[in-house]
Amino acid sequence: MILLKKILKTLCCLAVTIYSVDSFAQSQHEVQQVQEFLTSKDNNGLNAIPSFYAPDSTRGFRYFSRQWLRGAVLYSNDQTNSNREKPLKADNSRFYNFDKFSNKLVSTEDGKNTLNLPNDAVNSFILMDSGKLYTFKKIPEISKSAYFEVMTENDSGYSLYKHIITKLNRADYQNIGYGSTGKKYDEYVDAYEYYVVFPGAKEFKKLSLNTSSIKKALKAEAKKLDEFFEHNPGDVTEQTLYSLILFLNNKTGI
To answer: 165: closest CA among 77, 62, 81?
Structure first.
């Protein structure tokens, strides 16, 4: 009887062992099949990392205007005494726009075929938008390649220029499971720099939109600055800066 029980116990253990081995072999076979599928061409990209969002369309704008504009151009090969004396050439058959991102003037005749005018070929240009004229020019004292928007210009006094700097901030969205960070869209972002060129056009200073920066750059005009800011308290804006230069040139401003 005892011998019979030992034989039955041995047979049960053997059956369990055979089942386990068979199950392990079947499991290994299934794993191998899955691995072969994921590395084959039949999975239609199912092994690719999934994208949890579709990028939104780009925001901001790389051009000065959202439409083509009439304008006039001063080309570098025009031979006269100085930049300010050179005549601008208006071409009624062409339209223009300013690519702020690449610092280039763009031209077209039909709105379809465009021409990027080489930076070294254009000294200055004027764009007319909704009846208002915008003048851009190179200021060699500040930069030999960048175009500056003319805010006010005076041959015997102070001149004020604005430099538009456009950068492209790429989408950096991340889904990290318990939350998300970043933006889903690329975005063109504008920043502005302001420069004052002193009488005689041999010296310039970079200005920020605050009184301390202005007073530091224009130390020689301390009394006039105190008078101006007494009548113009509060935050300094672009319009404030423009009015200040007019005031220093004895035109208006207060």
So the answer is: 62
Using one digit for the tens of pLDDT, what is the confidence trace for 103-135? 999 999 888 889 999 999 999 999 998 889 999
Sequence spans of domains, the chain: 70-207, 210-254
Instruction: Give the range among 24-38, 39-53, 169-183, 218-232 with minimum mean pLDDT.
Output: 39-53
Distance between the two ends of the chain, CA-based, in angstroms?
120
Alpha-carbon dihedral angle through residues 248, 249, 252, 254, given to the nearest 10 degrees: 0
Does residue 162 sit in helix, strand or coil?
strand
Lateral strand order in the sheet of 104-108: 95-99, 104-108, 114-117
Q: What is the rounded distance in angstroms from the CA atom of residue 119 to the CA atom of residue 115?
A: 12
**pTM for the structure as a whole:** 0.70
Measure the CA angle with vertex 166, ends 163 and 171; round to 5°. Answer: 160
Q: Which two tokens stand for residue 113?
A: 């075929």
